[in-house]
Amino acid sequence: MPTILIEGSYSFIFFSSDKGEPPHIHVKRDKQVAKFWLNPVVMAKNMGFKEYELNQIEKLVLKNQEFILEAWHDYFSS
After folding, report:
1. Is the pTM value of this prediction over 0.85?
2. What burial class does residue 51 get, using C-beta atoms within 10 Å of its C-beta: 0-12 exposed, 13-18 middle, 19+ buried?
3. What's the rounded Cα separation, in Å, for the pair 73 and 76?
4. Which residues pair with 43 in a beta bridge?
5. Mean pLDDT of all residues in 2-17
6. Among the residues of 1-78, which ranges form H helices?
7. Which helix (H) or strand (E) holds 32?
8. In this structure, how many other beta carbons lie within 10 angstroms of the beta carbon of residue 72?
9. Which residues pair with 45 in a beta bridge?
């Protein structure tokens, strides 16, 4: 479960078992986790975040979309 980015209190992570899925990122804070598809950026799953916080997280995913996609391809192509 590599952490590829930390923004404030949010950790952006991949799960090794996600290799067969389209590019996405899991965003974690404490015990909350959300999953966002990357192309286009769309929330796929939410476990514990409030709506206002999901909006903030989505903005962070959009801001870092290119970096996250590059990290996805680097990590899962090896």
Report:
1. yes
2. exposed
3. 5
4. 36
5. 94
6. 51-63, 65-76
7. strand 32-38
8. 20
9. 35
